[in-house]
C-alpha cells in the first residue's frame, strides 16, 4: 500500500453471493473458485464482528477498505460471442447472465477510490443488462424454477444488485454489448 493512501480497493470477478434486495434472494457460489473462497472468508470475518470493532478500518492504518465484486469482465472484442449464449441459457447461469464492460469496471474503480466511504464496504459491479436477449424474468423461471423474484426487473435487466454501488459510489453502467452487435 502506498504511503499517504486515502483508501484501499480490492476487486475480484467471481461472485460468492448477492446482496439481498436484488431480484433474486439467496446464495450464488462457485465452490471451485479460490477467489470466491477468499471473498467468502472476508465476508465471514466481517459478519463475525471485526468490522464492528474497527468500524471497517484496519487498526494500523485507519484507511477505509472498499471491495468491488465484478461480474464477468468483458469488452467489445468479446461481444461477438454473445449470440452463442442465447440458445442455451444454462451455459451462463453461473452468474445470472451478468457481465460488466471493461470500461465501466475501470470507472467503478475510480469512483470507489474517490467515494466518501467510511469503514469497509463492498459493492457488486455489473452492467445494467444481461448477456441474453430474452427477458430476465423468463430466464429465471426456466433455469431456476421455484426461486422467487423479490424485486422489479426490467425486460433484460441485470439480476445482480447494483443499487448500493449506484447510491454510494455514483456508479452507473454506461456501456452495453447491445451498442456493439445486433440482436
Structure characterization notes:
- It is a single chain.
- With 183 residues, the protein is α/β, with parallel strands linked by helices.
- It has one domain.
- 26% of the residues lie in helices and 11% in strands.
- Strands 1-2-5 form a 3-stranded parallel β-sheet, sandwiched between helices.
- The chain is globular and about 50 Å long.
- Residues 15-42 and 44-58 have low confidence and may be disordered.
Helices and strands in order:
Blueprint: E1 8-12, H1 34-47, H2 50-54, E2 65-70, E3 73-74, E4 100-101, H3 102-114, E5 120-125, H4 136-143, H5 163-169
Helix count?
5
Stretches where pLDDT is under 50 for at least 5 consecutive residues are 15-42, 44-58
The domain count comes to 1
Strand content: 5-15%
The shape, in one word, is: globular
- SS-derived structural category: alpha/beta
Cα-to-Cα separation, first versus last residue: 45 Å
Instruction: Tell me the Rg in angstroms.
Output: 17 Å
Helix and strand string, N-terminal first?
Answer: EHHEEEHEHH
Instruction: Please give the share of residues in helix.
Output: 25-40%
What's the total count of β strands?
5
- What's the arrangement of strands in the largest beta sheet? 1-2-5
Mean pLDDT: 77
Q: What kind of sheet is the major sheet? A: 3 strands, parallel
In short:
The protein is α/β, with parallel strands linked by helices and 183 residues long. Helices cover 26% and strands 11% of the residues.
